[in-house]
Structures are given as structure tokens and as C-alpha cells.
């Protein structure tokens, strides 16, 4: 099976970068299970984009408990008995918290997060998708999800910067950093094949892939 040495793969990146689409294509290609974020199930998300100061904490806590319940369930079902590809990394949950919560809220969030984090498994490989903020803004607008209709360009810029800083220091698992500005892994078979080859040929713990690299 292609990529069989990676039993647990995570695809990550900011809103609009294409992580869910790539996760689904990878899973279909190798016959893996998927573990997907479900933002549409968060009852606070639309209100967060309308009034972030008021709804940041309940939005963040809902996602935190949603994600840890899914990760815990996978561990109980013998995660490594089958290949799993996820479109989120539990460790990055703090990224959004730092960006959206005030000081007191962040302290409360941290106490809850640190009590839950040991239950999360470490991936065998993380694929971090990068894109310019112009690309992210265009992709978010183009897909037109209702709960994203009030996302500001400023928020996407801050989020992309926070992702870059987070993965600059990330070393918990092997990391493939992919510049996706000029790559279309869903509709372009050649791009997808190039990515698969790069993943299979990884030798280091941190590598970079972009068109022409």
C-alpha cells in the first residue's frame, strides 16, 4: 500500500488552503479512514465571525472537546490497526486560542487543554499546506460556506501568520511543508502524483515541496 509506513497522517493549514480536499483525496487513494473537522456542527461559529470577542471562548471550547472526543475514540478503536488521515492537528488548537481569546479566557482554555492533550496521539507525518493570503482570501470567497461569510481578510492574514509561526517551531512529528499556491491536488492528477512521490521519498524530519522544487 502506498504510504503504508505512515499509519496516521495529518494535513494542516489555514482556512481555505485546501486541507480537507487533500485529506479526502489521499484517503481515497490509499484506502484510509478519514478524521475530519466538522465546523458546521459548531453552534457558535457563525456568531464568532460576527462578534469574535463575545463568542471566541465558547467557539474554541466546542472545537476543543469535539476534537479530543474524536481523537480519543480513534485511540480506543486501535488507531494503528488501520491507516487514518486527518484534516486537523490537535496540537494546533492553541494557535486559534492565542489569536482569539483574551488573557483570562486563554488561561482557562490552557488549563482545560493541558488536561486533555495527553490523550491525543502523535501523527507519523504532518503535511502543512501554505498559501499566500491573497490565495486564501480568494478560495474562501469562492467556496462560499455560510459560516465563513463574515470572515474578514484581516483575520485570514493573522491566521496565516500564526500558522507559519507555529510550524516554524513544530518538531513533534516529521513535517512536509507544501506551498500550494500553484498546485491543485484535487483536480490535477499530475500535481497529486508529484506530491505522493515527494511524501514517499521523504528522508528528513522537515522537508519543503513547491511547484518546480
Description of the molecule:
A six-stranded parallel β-sheet has the order 2-3-1-4-5-6, sandwiched between helices. The chain is α/β, with parallel strands linked by helices and 213 residues long. It has a single domain, classed as P-loop containing nucleotide triphosphate hydrolases (Rossmann fold, 3-Layer(aba) Sandwich). The protein has eight helices and six strands, in the order βαβααβααβααβαβ.
Break the fold down into its secondary structure elements and pairings.
Layout: E1 8-12, H1 19-30, E2 33-35, H2 45-50, H3 52-76, E3 84-86, H4 93-100, H5 103-116, E4 125-130, H6 133-143, H7 153-169, E5 175-179, H8 189-200, E6 206-209
Features:
213 residues; alpha/beta; Rossmann fold; 6 strands; globular
Oligomer: single chain
Question: Number of folding domains?
Answer: 1
Biggest sheet: strands side by side, in what order? 2-3-1-4-5-6
* Rg value: 17 Å
**Class from helix and strand fractions:** alpha/beta
Helix content: 40-55%
Major β-sheet, in short? Answer: 6 strands, parallel
| Second CATH tier, the architecture | 3-Layer(aba) Sandwich
What's the β-strand tally?
6
Distance between the termini: 26 Å
**Topology as H/E string?**
EHEHHEHHEHHEHE
Q: What's the tally of helices?
A: 8
CATH fold-level assignment: Rossmann fold
Strand content: 5-15%
| CATH homology group | P-loop containing nucleotide triphosphate hydrolases
pLDDT averaged residue by residue: 89
CATH class division:
Alpha Beta
Q: How does the overall form come out from the CA principal axes?
A: globular
Uncertain segments: none
Amino acid at each position: 500500500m502506498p504510504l503504508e509506513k505512515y499509519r496516521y497522517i495529518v494535513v494542516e493549514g489555514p482556512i481555505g488552503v485546501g486541507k480537507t480536499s487533500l485529506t479526502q483525496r489521499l484517503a481515497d487513494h490509499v484506502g484510509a479512514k478519514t478524521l475530519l473537522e466538522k465546523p458546521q456542527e459548531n453552534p457558535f461559529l457563525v456568531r464568532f465571525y460576527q462578534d469574535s470577542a463575545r463568542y471566541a471562548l465558547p467557539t474554541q471550547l466546542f472545537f476543543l472537546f469535539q476534537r479530543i472526543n474524536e481523537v480519543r475514540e480513534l485511540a480506543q478503536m486501535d488507531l494503528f490497526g488501520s491507516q487514518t488521515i486527518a484534516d486537523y492537528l490537535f496540537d494546533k488548537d492553541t494557535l486559534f486560542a492565542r489569536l482569539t481569546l483574551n488573557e483570562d479566557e486563554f488561561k482557562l482554555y490552557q488549563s482545560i487543554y493541558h488536561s486533555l492533550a495527553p490523550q491525543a496521539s502523535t501523527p507519523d507525518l504532518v503535511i502543512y499546506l501554505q498559501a499566500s493570503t491573497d490565495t486564501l482570501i480568494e478560495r474562501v470567497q469562492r467556496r462560499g460556506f455560510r459560516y465563513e461569510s463574515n470572515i474578514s481578510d484581516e483575520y485570514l492574514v493573522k491566521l496565516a501568520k500564526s500558522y507559519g509561526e507555529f510550524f516554524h517551531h513544530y518538531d513533534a512529528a516529521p513535517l512536509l511543508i507544501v506551498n500550494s499556491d500553484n498546485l491543485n491536488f484535487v483536480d490535477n492528477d499530475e500535481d497529486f502524483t508529484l506530491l505522493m512521490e515527494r511524501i514517499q521519498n521523504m528522508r528528513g524530519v522537515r522537508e519543503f515541496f513547491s511547484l518546480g522544487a
